[in-house]
Amino acid sequence: MIESQCLASTAVSQVLAGRNLNQALQGLLSRHSSLTSQQRAAAQDMSYGTLRFYGQLRAILDLLLQKPVQDAAVRALLLVALYQLQYSRSAAHAVVDHAVRAAEALKKPWAKGLVNAVLRNFLRQRISLLEQAAASEEGRYSHPQWWIDKLRRQYPDDWATLLETNNQHPPMTLRVNRRATSTAAYLDLLHQQGIEGQQVGENAILLEQPVSVDKLPGFGDGMASVQDAGAQFAARLLDVADGMRVLDACAAPGGKAAHLLELAGIELTALDSDPERLKKIEQTLQRLKLEAHCLVGNAARPEEWWDGKPFQRILADVPCSASGVVRRHPDIKWLRREADIAAFAAQQAEILDALWRVLGRDGKLLYATCSVFAEENQQQIAQFLERHKDAQCLPLSLPAAKDGQLTPNPQHDGFYYALLLKA
After folding, report:
1. pTM for this predicted structure
2. Diameter of the chain measured on Cα atoms
3. What is the pLDDT of residues 41-91, one digit of tens each?
4. Contact 39/3 with Cβ under 8 angstroms?
5. Active site (annotated) includes residue 370
6. Which among 6, 294, 320, 370 is annotated as catalytic?
7. If I label 389, which of 41, 88, 234, 290 is the partner at 20 to 30 A Cα–Cα?
8. Which residues are CB-contacts of 348 (< 8 A; sequence separation ≥ 6)?
9. How far is CA 115 from CA 2, 72, 78, 83, 133, in A?
């Protein structure tokens, strides 16, 4: 546990300094190749859990300290240990003992006494500290105050539920490749492997418990992919048919592009601005035995990559705040700033205007984000319709959505969809 605590503490301190959690963890784990799979999983759980409840844990730690701990590594170690004491099933005495030894392993021997005292004080005063932490909204909901305020304004009836849902573990959903098997047949295969799930969409299976992909039958042969049930609406909403010329404009890592190809025999261009991310699309398509024209290019600059022939369908799954997927990426809550939302909205508008030029008459463009903020969603589309009088927003067959907005729930993440017709 000491090695895992050290790794998690380092990852958390890097995120609080502005780094992406996934990148921080991957970098750390690649330098510690001798770790067991159990140690790696523990480090990941501690990192994600600490950031999931960072608002509460920070409030508790501030109550326990007479003066702030300036050392970032020690502060992160205390947060990780507090997460373990409150949310893990590890024995309290073991967590405290390992945290004290982790301070030495992190080359902070001066902090051993402090770590011991702070954690033991938490165990003695737990109930009172939890009550005091919940007195502030950041401490109660573990989101930044600006985020809480924005959701309260935009979701006056559901904001608290939304925040609480964001702090839960995300569902794991599979998309069955209809070109390889049926959903019912794949459910039987899962059951034979002792993996239980339920069908929640035409080709979507929600697992009772997450499992690693190497345990999924036929995964390497392309029988199924991991894709959130909310994300699986995209390909169906775009209404593709055999022979169509289709663009997936911000395609990485390739899940939606692959789904489009599973639904119809289309001529697909998968575009992404990042060459490394484009490689992930190619790997995804190769595993699923699908083909597309993969192209490096900026969706906002079609003059650099477009061949002049209009597309009949365009999927614009644009860069966004990712505020609808914080269950999977809890670091987003603490890395985002309120000013970022306006910057994303400006980028989205530029991409939308550019892609509209390459869409053929009577063609359809599906605008998609994994955001729950109106500036990136309903407001973005309203402004687009003002600028483009030849655009019509079509009604969507989208269960449990309000004005195209899906909010996170036990079955799916938060997404927004708008289907635009070029009249």
Report:
1. 0.94
2. 71
3. 999 999 999 999 999 999 999 999 989 899 999 999 999 999 999 999 999
4. yes
5. yes
6. 370
7. 234
8. 318, 319, 320, 369, 376, 380
9. 14, 13, 7, 14, 20
